Amino acid sequence: MATVSVTQRRVIAAAKKPVPVTGRFGAYGGRYVPETLMAALDELEREYEKAKNDRRFQARLEYLLKQYAGRPTPLFFAKRLTEKLGGAKIYLKREDLLHTGAHKINNCIGQALLVERMGKHRVIAETGAGQHGVATATVCALLGFECVVYMGTEDMRRQVLNVFRMRLLGAEVRGVDAGSRTLKDAINEAMRDWVTNVRTTHYLLGSVLGAHPYPTMVRDFHRVIGREARRQVLKAEGKLPKAIIACVGGGSNAIGIFYDFLKDKKVELIGVEAGGCGEGLGQHAARFRGGSPGVLQGTFSYVLQDKAGQIATTHSISAGLDYPSIGPEHAMLKDSGRAEYVPASDVEALKATTVLARTEGIIPALESAHAVAEAIKRAPKMKKSEVLIVNVSGRGDKDVGILRENLKLD
Amino acid sequence: MPFHFENKPVLVAYVTCGDPDLATTRDIILAAIESGAGIIELGVPFSDPVADGPVIQKASERALKHGTSLEQVLKLASEIREHSQSVGMIVFSYLNPILKMGMSKFCKVARHAGLDGVLITDLPVEEAGEYLREARKNDLVTVFLVAPTSTDQRLKQIATVSTGFIYAISRTGVTGARQQMPEDASGLVKRLRRFTKLPVAVGFGISTPEQFAAVGQYADAAVVGSAIVQAIERNRGHEAPAVAEFIRSLVARKS
Ligand SMILES: Cc1ncc(COP(=O)(O)O)c(C=O)c1O
């Protein structure tokens, strides 16, 4: 074709100046979904922007966080753990004390109120450890929505108590038998449901993953963790902490506690990924150790993948960290060096669970135990005058089956 | 560019490459061309096909089990081009395998293989800047999807950056055969035509001669995917003749 038509010239001009995109964290993030979902994401973004500036919405959110979920959560000085490790003063941010047992409820309440605003009545969600599924089932019961939760059958096996809790709360749990039958596969199936029923259904995504506006919106709903922690540590110690540690599955509890400390450049932010049972592809979920930039399930971030761009399988003893990609904002924080990311293995997480249980009388979720494991490595190398905050994102009740299998205490 | 839309509706045949293996895929495609398919969509299998129903999911799994890659699909394209100069041929892929190869390299190799264009399922126009630049450079058409949920504003945006043809999804949902074609489809095509003179293909759920003919009433082409993939699955050992027969049955009414 020798001559360039008017249409083609228009196309070339458009190609040079693509439609501006929002929802970027440096190079990461964006909105990579089938066209069918684009209008729904636009609607969600618009509603969320409106709600942010709506005092009634904010007042309702605050009321439910306080009177229903139990915020603020304590910042607890772990005296015996501090003494045992002999270094930094360790504080625990007690998200495990929230209603339903993990930080996940913060985001679920926020999104559920948006569902109400949008006039939708059906909510779907994915879940790995079952904590997000339980929190979703809970808010759906509270506000009277129909609720369907997708869960990999491997995760249903290892988090059987949470499956029952969801059903008790009136949710339908649909097992997903594809791939490695874990979190990623559950998200695929939830996205297929959403593509089909998008006109009536809200997808209540449980971490800072997926297409814009989810990573931003879910982060905002969890910011309350860091906002409280900052105020609490200043009150208790009169100074900021030296470091903050949180586990990173998708990254919602971590970004929630990190966010209000980002501007405090001296505060070290440490995310802990699942080191699993080895360093080979398929043996862990440490995206920053074995992954590279790619697109999975709506967002551009670090992804564990093979040479042909097929997504790798992952392994972790903790279902909530067992996922091949990571929230795009964490990818940006990693590249810029503002946050640091380290792995903790299955064995280290199990050990940390026992340590925290026996020094402080707190049984953490296996996800949170990864953060505790890093604290156990790091605190002894820090000065006694320095303060370390560990985000205990959830409690370990759901994990007693796995703990019992692995710890051989009977 | 070998897209011919004179004899409507054109049959666009989707095949998941590498199911059951690449040599068979090649035979299937040649048979499809022979029996009346005007455009071939070479489906690149992906580990996480969020827009696909069970039939194409399972086909992708089978293809990936023996390591079918984008690179191999592009090689297959050049083999098919050797056999047929006149068939239209596009790659149908999720974004990540293409990103892994590199958009620029992918577009070069695709053109070199004799492909006419590309459709990336999970790449909406907002994110398509680099893709559009590289595809234009290599003279590949950029096919985008429109959906019943696309607003008029989106249809307009999509029409602006589309070349070759536009692919209208007949209904909200994943790929897969359905008993009835929904009302959505013709209304969507009507809305879309206000913004474009490009030919429009309708797909998702077409599996019978009746549906094929019905789509021909308002669209320029009809895409048949899952039904072909299912014919492949159900006719182990004689896939190509089975697909040929199926395609002949679809286009038989066309005069
Ligand atoms: C207690 C707990 N912590 C952490 C996570 C990981 O998610 P995120 O990284 O989004 O906080 C989960 C997920 O299921 C969880 O249940």
Describe it for me?
The complex is a heterodimer of chains A (410) and B (255). With 410 residues, chain A is α/β, with parallel strands linked by helices. Helix content of chain A is 46%, strand content 18%. Chain A has helices at residues 6-16, 35-52, 55-69, 79-85, 104-118, 131-143, 153-158, 160-168, 183-197, 214-237, 252-258, 287-290, 328-336, 346-360, 366-378, 400-407; strands spanning 24-25, 28-32, 75-77, 89-94, 122-127, 146-152, 172-176, 201-203, 243-247, 268-276, 292-296, 298-303, 339-345, 387-392. In chain A, the strands form three sheets. Chain A has a six-stranded mixed sheet with strand order 3-4-14-9-10-13, sandwiched between helices. In chain A, helix 5 (104-118) packs across helix 10 and helix 10 crosses helix 11. The longest helix of chain A has 24 residues, at 214-237. The termini of chain A are far apart. With 255 residues, chain B is an alpha/beta fold. Chain B has a domain at 10-136 and 206-251: TIM Barrel (Alpha-Beta Barrel), CATH 3.20.20. Chain B is 45% helix and 16% strand. Chain B is built from eleven helices and nine strands. Chain B has helices at 22-34, 54-65, 70-83, 95-101, 103-112, 129-137, 152-161, 184-193, 209-216, 226-234, 239-251, and strands spanning 10-16, 37-43, 88-93, 117-120, 141-143, 145-146, 166-169, 200-203, 221-224. Chain B has a nine-stranded parallel sheet with strand order 5-4-3-2-1-9-8-7-6. In chain B, helix 10 runs antiparallel to helix 11. The longest helix of chain B has 14 residues, at 70-83. The two termini of chain B are 24 Å apart. The mean pLDDT of chain B is 95. Bound molecules: pyridoxal-5'-phosphate (PLP). Pyridoxal-5'-phosphate binds at residues 102, 128-129, 131-132, 207, 247-254, 320-321, 365, 367-368, 393-394 of chain A. Pyridoxal-5'-phosphate (PLP) is lined by residues 102, 128-129, 131-132, 207, 247-254, 320-321, 365, 367-368, 393-394 of chain A.
